[in-house]
Amino acid sequence: MRGVIMHEPGDVRVEERPDPTIEAPTDAVIRIVAACVCGSDLWPYRGADAPDQQLMGHEYVGIVEEVGDEVRTVAPGDFVVGSFVISDNTCPICTAGYQSRCVNGIFVDGGIGTQAEFARIPHADGTLVATPGQPDDDLIPSLLAASDVLGTGWFAADAAEVGPGKSVAVIGDGAVGLMGVLAAKQMGAETIIAMTRHVDRQNLAREFGATHIVEERGDEGVAKIRELTDGLGVHSAIEAVGSQESMMQAIRSTRPGGHVGYVGVSHDVELPGGELFFGLVHLHGGPAPVRRFLPDLIELIWNREIDPGKVFDQTMSLDDAAAAYSAMDSREAVKVLLRPRSLHLSVQER
Ligand SMILES: [Zn+2]
């Protein structure tokens, strides 16, 4: 089969890889219908991590080809959405709702890599969720979004305790930040402030439910957010970047007693104790337990109550993965959907 391998930073190739097979009775093999490039894939692409022949991709929807003897909840022919961490969904961590740190957890990136034609999914029952039937083509981008960016934005909003009548600041205008805006809207937030300087992303944020845009950053950004919240700061902040600047922006934008949900993959973030102490904010975040939210998110998408698929602004053939990485690296694209050449999907064009 064809699949993406990152040889070293900036060097993305689509190459022949061995066809996956059932190795354990809890495995499924799925045919990937759509995958995509994640903002987090840009960290190794830009050299912040050290990729070495890394199998790329962790967002996926597909059709089950084959299952092991112990798989009960999905069957060949089912259309499935999976999360970016393999989970058994039965251990104490999973049952508490933190499937992304399952005791049997495996990150799909690196070990599996779903920017490919097929993938072996261990712990299929605990990882995959079948849709109620075969989806219409136009639902596929939204279902794919549920696999990571929507699930991650949703977790960030949940961790930030977004709720009816509350004010929310979203730091980060990548796909996850935009999905955080959508989640905040769906959870009933009254004021949703998207922090972005890019006009196209401002427009998308408004489409997803942002009520205010703040272009300023740092102290000026904090001052703007205070202006919009009676001088207090927001009830909830969603941090969707992972840098020192964005994390401090989130903490400083939040009122005492408020909540920060942080989901940007942390890179060299160091929190100053004094500010944490007097800030009096709740911090909760990490790799999103997307599996917790998947059944509900699939239902919302299936019933066409939300349309997160709009976050994909380009679609490319899997064979053009290198161009997809480049378009996202240069921020020409918010998020690129990749499809194996053999499949023809009508992805909505913006
Ligand atoms: Zn578990």
TrEMBL record:
Keyword Transcription recorded: no
Domain Enoyl reductase (ER): 10-338
InterPro entries registered for this protein in UniProt: ADH-like_C, ADH-like_N, ADH_Zn_CS, ER, GroES-like_sf, NAD(P)-bd_dom_sf
Pfam families: ADH_N, ADH_zinc_N
Taxonomic superkingdom: Bacteria
Co-factor(s): Zn(2+)
Keywords carried by this UniProt record: Metal-binding, Oxidoreductase, Zinc
Family: Belongs to the zinc-containing alcohol dehydrogenase family.
Protein name: IMP dehydrogenase
Species for this entry: Brevibacterium sediminis
